[in-house]
Design goal:
With 382 residues, the protein is of the alpha/beta class. The protein contains twelve helices and 15 strands. The protein has a seven-stranded parallel sheet, sandwiched between helices. Strands 10-9-8-11-12-13 form a six-stranded parallel sheet, with helices on both faces. Strands 14-15 form a two-stranded antiparallel ribbon. β5, α4 and β6 form a beta-alpha-beta unit. The relative contact order is 0.13. The mean pLDDT is 91.
């Protein structure tokens, strides 16, 4: 009989983690040598029809809670925690746990950690058979900030599409006849969308489309007030369709553990201008498959909107591979690169095609699946 993998996710909103996980599990349910189930504290994963019947809400019944604890305390199963390495609740749960088959999968939450979380990260990591990081930047953040053993951390990039899939335009019906710049993601502190809006105000002949929601939404709309070239699109159900309508995408992040929007833009063969920070530089090679801008400016805000994600204490500098203080890219420099891409269609095509090839080879679902299967097999064999 195949062994069971118990996935534990605790995020309460649909984002990159949930979308990529749903894609992986849909693939794994067809190909895996293991049985899979999901335990979480919310119903958000029920939005993904293909995996709904494998999902159990821990908060909904005593039976679900007891079943999860049974899996956790048994050596016959693997518990795969996502973004919970710094969780105090998990720390308490594992405190008296004997050796078990636990994986922690870091996908970006460590950037929001506090110095006082050091003991929690140490305790939880000591219980893990292996720690998976979604980027080299995540591995650096874990090892340099919380002294987690690098030998215990495996970098496994997210899988987004099949190696065998052919590129196709999802929907080429545009929003605008003007040169269109898109942003797709949460409207929150780490994303640096305010910088993009400052660029939009300097380029009235270009249209800017902002897709997403978050704590910064009202603040950003206030920044954009009076400018008719900035459009807030709300939550987009089909990210690839949105991206396909753009001429270029911008990812102006203050911190970005990997950069799902960059990967999705690559699938659509759209050029990307992005901050040269954290994991983004593991996708974009400047001047080859996109444009990277070094963040050199002091953050232009002090007060955060209510409920906003805090400013990270550190980010990873891709050039030095060291921790650095967070900064933002320059809006004038961003304007210059936007104009450059508009004036050079062949360059846009080159960046889009090269990014597509990068994404297809580096972030395919087959490789992601195979790497996880090998990790599961190794743990159970030992």
């Amino acid at each position: 009989m195949s062994k069971k993998i118990v996935h534990q996710l605790s995020l309460s909103d649909i984002g990159g983690v949930q979308r990529s996980f749903a894609l992986y599990l849909t693939y794994a349910l067809k190909k895996s040598n293991f049985h899979h189930c999901i335990y979480s504290f919310h119903d958000i994963l029920d939005n993904f029809i293909n995996i709904k019947k494998y999902h159990f809400n821990i908060n909904k019944s005593l039976h679900n809670r007891l079943k999860f604890l049974f899996y956790l305390y048994s050596k016959k199963y693997i518990i795969h925690f996502y973004n919970n390495l710094g969780s105090n609740n998990v720390n308490k749960l594992l405190k008296f746990l004997p050796s078990s088959n636990i994986i922690f999968h870091e996908r970006g939450r460590v950037w929001n950690a506090k110095d006082e979380d050091h003991t929690i990260y140490q305790n939880n990591s000591s219980k893990a058979k292996i720690i998976i990081a979604n980027s080299n930047a995540s591995k650096i953040m874990l090892s340099k900030r919380f002294n987690i053993d690098c030998n215990k951390i495996n970098v496994v990039y997210n899988g987004f599409l099949s190696k065998n899939i052919s590129h196709k335009i999802v929907n080429n019906q545009r929003y605008s006849k003007k040169f269109s710049i898109g942003y797709l993601g949460r409207l929150d502190t780490p994303k640096g969308v305010h910088v993009l809006l400052e660029s939009a105000k300097k380029l009235p002949d270009y249209d800017f489309f902002i897709a997403g929601k978050g704590a910064w939404e009202d603040t950003l709309k206030n920044i954009a007030r009076g400018f008719n070239n900035i459009y807030f699109m709300g939550v987009i159900k089909n990210p690839l369709e949105f991206i396909s309508k753009m001429d270029t995408m911008v990812v102006p992040s203050i911190r970005e553990p990997l950069g799902n929007t960059v990967i999705e833009s690559g699938y659509c063969k759209k050029p990307v201008i992005a901050s040269n920070i954290d994991g983004i530089a593991e996708i974009i090679e400047n001047g080859i498959n996109g444009i990277l801008i070094d963040p050199k400016n002091t953050l232009s805000f002090n007060k955060l909107p209510k409920g906003a994600v805090p400013i990270p204490k550190f980010v990873v500098n891709p050039k030095t591979q060291e921790l650095d203080s967070p900064k933002e890219i320059d809006s004038i420099k961003l304007c210059e690169f936007i104009v450059k891409l508009e004036n050079n269609p062949k360059l846009r095509e080159k960046y889009g095609e090269n990014l597509y090839q990068t994404v297809k080879q580096k972030f395919c679902i087959e490789d992601y699946f195979e790497k996880l299967e090998k990790i599961y097999q190794k743990i159970l064999l030992n």
